[in-house]
Specification:
The protein is of the alpha/beta class. The protein contains eleven helices and 13 strands.
Length: about 270
């Protein structure tokens, strides 16, 4: 059985002086400074993370390129798989991000705007390099294709862009299936509703995607502790659990999460 992965993530933006900095918020808002991306990458590499995710959270919204110089510095400090996302819109962007030291690229807006980018990236660099990221938001109306029960109500999950500020009308589960068919090697499922809340992953969302595809799924947003990681593995079928706040603010260590999972017979790398 493949081991389940625990993946810390940093959300990186430019501070007032134009320097890269890590920020943490709730529902993609009220961001607070958390640390230096290179120092945090080094820390997580030494802490036993299985992989590491670097997201440039305003590159797409601001229409700028990913901070490749910072990516290079981070890549020098991590010796585990590194995924980089933010502002990737073309095959050339994928190439330059991989050249900067990323092992995988995470694409959201660029793929929604032009789905052919998934196929182009997979054919040029291999499916294992192409991670399709989805920023999902619940909608309680009749415009979706796949529905789940949430708190006694029926809802569907919409793909959003610009940090959840703009809907696309695209159903997350349907988009996940298309991304898989186009060659995505992994799906990175974020919940705008759960982001930063530490109240648990969005199980209906994650399970809906996991049930629809065979591509590995990374669950993201809402982790408040080891029990949430256990739930998303055991109830939703996720292949990896991504977390930020609980690690950034020393609420739990990666080791503590893995030991909790190991005690419950979830296969992890200790």
């Amino acid at each position: 059985m493949l081991t389940k992965r625990i993946i810390p993530c940093i959300d990186v933006d430019l501070d007032e002086d134009g320097n890269a900095a890590v920020y943490t918020g709730v529902n993609f808002e009220n961001l607070q400074y958390t640390g230096d991306p290179v120092e945090m990458a080094k820390m997580y590499n030494e802490a036993g993370a299985d992989e590491f995710v670097f997201l440039d959270i305003t590159a797409s919204a601001d229409g700028r390129e990913t901070m490749l110089g910072v990516v290079e510095d981070v890549a020098d400090e991590v010796f585990i798989p590194l995924t980089v996302g933010g502002g990737i819109r073309t095959r050339e962007d994928i190439k330059e991000t991989l050249r900067a030291g990323a092992d995988k690229v995470s694409i959201n807006t660029g793929a929604l705007e032009r789905p052919e980018l998934i196929t182009e990236g997979a054919e040029a660099f291999g499916s294992q390099c192409i991670v399709i990221s989805v920023d999902s938001k619940r909608r309680f109306d009749e415009q979706g294709e796949h529905y789940a029960q949430v708190d006694g109500e029926s809802c569907w999950f919409e793909c959003t862009v610009k940090g959840g500020r703009e809907g696309t009308g695209v159903d997350v589960v349907e988009w996940a299936k298309e991304a898989e068919n186009r060659g995505a090697g992994e799906l990175f499922v974020n919940s705008i509703d759960a982001d930063g809340t530490e109240e648990g992953y969005d199980i209906p969302l994650t399970k809906g995607v996991c049930d629809a595809v065979s591509t590995p799924v990374i669950a993201s947003s809402g982790c408040g502790g080891p029990e949430d990681a256990y739930e998303v593995f055991s109830e939703a079928g996720a292949d990896a659990a991504l977390a930020a706040s609980i690690f950034h603010f020393d609420e739990y260590s990666i080791r503590e999460v893995k030991e909790y999972l190991d005690e419950r017979d979830v296969p992890v790398r200790l």
